[in-house]
Amino acid sequence: MKDEFLVAAIAEAKKGLGEGGIPIGSVLVKNGKIIGGGHNKRVQELNPMIHAEIDCLMNAGRIGSYRGTELYSTLMPCYLCAGAVVQFGIKKVYAGESVTFDGAREFMESHGVEVIDLNDEECILMMRGFIAKNPELWNEDIGEL
């Protein structure tokens, strides 16, 4: 059975895809409850900064301390999002997958973040399908255009 928080992150990713965006979703969990969720909105908002994890943190709002929070993302966070994780002191990140994008795992771990790669088949297939259909948009998203 799939982790309920990963399921919620996948739902966010699918929401983004349905809006014509990049299918990456994220949720922030505190005390076993989702306190924020978001998805990549670079395309929808014409804003290169609105990655899934950033949108998630924005939607969670000011929560004071991030001690004890866990971040779930359908894809291994990039350096932008990993920087936010480190900046706010989030100590545990669950990534749906890192097959299609290896992200900034070592950066987060070097700053004391526990990173768990769930290697989830649904997350992998969702990103592989998107990348195959939208290679230029994907390369723009990861800064390789």
Provide a short characterization of the protein structure:
This protein is of the alpha/beta class and 145 residues long. The protein has helices at residues 4-18, 42-45, 52-60, 79-88, 105-110, 121-133, 135-141; strands at residues 25-30, 33-39, 69-73, 92-95, 114-117.
Descriptive account of the structure:
The chain is an alpha/beta fold and 145 residues long. It is built from seven helices and five strands; from the N terminus they run αββααβαβαβαα. It has a five-stranded mixed sheet. Strand 1 and strand 2 form a beta hairpin. Helix 6 packs across helix 7. The chain is globular and about 40 Å long.
Helix content: 40-55%
Which spans have pLDDT < 50 for at least 5 consecutive residues?
A: none
Radius of gyration: 14 Å
What's the order of the H and E elements?
HEEHHEHEHEHH
Task: Provide the spatial order of strands within the biggest beta sheet.
Answer: 2-1-3-4-5
Strand content of the residues, in percent? 15-25%
Global outline: globular
Q: How far apart are the termini? A: 38 Å
Structural class: alpha/beta
**Helix count, per DSSP?**
7
Mean pLDDT: 96
- Total beta-strand segments: 5
Main beta sheet: 5 strands, mixed
